[in-house]
Amino acid sequence: MRSLYLNCAESLVNLKATLSKEFSNIGVFEISLSQKEQELYAKNEKEFFIELISRFENFKQSHDFVVVLGCDGFGVFGKYELNLKIAKNLNTPVFECKNLDDLRSLNKNSKLLITDDLSEILNSNQEICTPYRFENILTNRAKNAKKTIVLPESDDDRILKASDILLKKEIVSITLLGDESAVNKRASELGLDLGKAKIIDPKNSDLHDKIWSEIFERRKAKGMSEENAKKLATDRTYFGTMLVELGLADAMVSGASTTTAETIRPALQLIKTKPGVSIVSGLFFMSLDEEVLLYADCAITPNPDPEAIASIAISTADSAKAFGIDPRVALLSYSTGESGSGVDVDAIKEAARILKEKDANLKFAAPIQYDAAADLSVGTKKMPGNEVAGRANVFVFPSLNTGNICYKAVQRTANALAIGPVLQGLRKPVNDLSRGCLVEDVVNTIIISAIQAGE
User: Fold this and answer.
1) In whole angstroms, what is the distance from residue 91 CA to residue 133 CA?
2) What band does 449 get if pLDDT is binned at 50, 70 and 90?
3) Alpha carbon distance 155, 166 (integer Å)
4) Tens digit of pLDDT for each residue in 123-169?
5) Are 347 and 340 in contact (CB under 8 A)?
6) DSSP states of 60-127
7) What are the pLDDT digits (tens) for 373-391?
8) Which of 15, 40, 142, 157 pairs with 77 at a CA distance of 20 to 30 A?
């Protein structure tokens, strides 16, 4: 690691002297909370941590080692509890000499390294990604991608509110589909500023002839008539899909007030799948307290066959890589290794055979139970010698039934941030919202879509 967290300033001078033997540019990032920052923490913890993480990451870029100097506690948090929470969000191991046992007792079952051994920190590869840290990473990547996202459902307040947030933060450019006067009127009523958004009315657009002719060309072999193509060109979902296909937008997000089928059908017909990909699937990023996991397929294919399961595994591993995550894939079953048998287990074994043929370098375990995939102590017993067992971060489910149930169970019982479904396998990104989505869900899905478009 190239950073550590120090609770007490008394050790700073000696610590810097020791570190200076290995590092020439040591920076001290002091957590000194002003009254304003304390008020922000009490009012909006998420904003507080994302701002802190951003400042820390910027500070790190100009130093080859950073010592984070902790703060005194305030409010309901004691000094140690607050500093441990900050250390996790900054992904910095804690160097502690005086109160080592006390800190460790407050931090049971955590990946956060707390030690009095400096060499242990320097040799550590600690990987903690909290929900706030993950959101910060996604936001920065989306900003850097500089993409335009088309949103067909301008008649939905959640879409307008999400657009306002994203435009103010200059994360993406937005194209809204709908009547411009109606959109602006509703935005004004909600106190939103959508002045930077582009608004196109599919029923009255200069692009109409271009859109319908392109739809016709792509679908005439399937029996599409010019009349039907002209009709579809006024449909907001088809219009938005064609903006993406023609490069007039980089991605589309829809589904707040339309069904999954209505969102995906135009994409399958017009954008189609990537070369070599046989199936479109839906993944969820599950942002837990200290790590991010990928679950698939949780949204699209009810009963994938072994070929489809292997394809879903490859797509999800590729998605992990696109978001900076080194994939370790688990093909889930009710049985681990050779311990069980049956039609369902055999299907996973066949999927594993296909997966190995398609990508011999992919790290995966199959068939494997969830506990053996997620818990190292269980994994080493049930599948000894496998590099994924107990360390999986990509979980591929045998059916939509199991995948959807599991993601919702983890979301609710572990208080996980679930971002998705993120559609994978399409040539260009189109993503589907839940009709029960919150504004935050819309924002996250748009950010994910911008990153996908940048890959």
Assistant:
1) 9
2) very high
3) 18
4) 999 999 999 999 999 999 999 999 999 999 999 999 999 999 999 99
5) no
6) HTT-SEEEEE-----TT--HHHHHHHHHHHHT-PEE-SSSHHHHHHTTTT----EES-HHHHHT----
7) 999 999 999 999 999 999 9
8) 15
Cis peptide before 297 (omega within 30 of 0): yes
Provide the token pair at 451.
């990153």
* pLDDT of 74 strictly over 50: no
pLDDT greater than 50 at residue 75: no
Give the number of other Cβ atoms within 10 Å of residue 391's Cβ: 17
Superfamily of chain region 281-425: Isocitrate/Isopropylmalate dehydrogenase-like (3.40.50.10750)
Contact 175, 147 (CB under 8 A): no
Site of tokens 């002209």: 230
Strand-pairing partners, residue 292, are 287
As given in the structure block, the two tokens for residue 257 are 């007030």
Q: Compute the distance between CA of residue 109 and CA of residue 88 in angstroms, rounded to an integer.
A: 13
Task: Pull the structure tokens for residue 368.
Answer: 């494997």
User: Which residue bears the tokens 């923490």?
Assistant: 41
Q: Peptide bond preceding 302: is omega within 30 degrees of 0, i.e. cis?
A: no
d(CA 248, CA 270): 14
User: Any bridge partners for residue 30, and if so which?
Assistant: 69
Annotate 321-353 with DSSP letters as a single string.
Answer: HHTT----EEEE-SS-TTS--SHHHHHHHHHHH
Residue 441, phi then psi, degrees to nearest 5: -65, -40
Characterize 158-171 residue by residue with b for buried, 16 or more Cβ atoms within 10 angstroms of its Cβ, and e for exposed.
bbbbbbbebbeeeb
Assign domain 135-271 to a CATH class: alpha beta
Amino acid occupying residue 62:
S
- Here the tokens at position 29 are 């990032």
CA dist 165 → 208, 303, 443 (Å): 30, 38, 8
Q: Is the confidence at residue 403, as pLDDT, over 70?
A: yes
Q: What is the DSSP string of 154-217?
A: TTSHHHHHHHHHHHHTT--EEEEES-HHHHHHHHHHHT---TTSEEE-TTS-TTHHHHHHHHHH
- What pLDDT, on the 0 to 100 scale, is given for residue 109? 84
The CA-atom distances, in angstroms, between 217 and each of 172, 221, 226, 250, 424 are 31, 8, 9, 21, 25
| Two structure tokens written together for 180 | 């411009």
Q: H-helix or E-strand containing 286?
A: strand 281-287
Q: Is the dihedral of CA 380, 386, 392, 398 positive or negative?
A: negative
Q: What are phi and psi of 292, to 5 degrees?
A: -115, 125
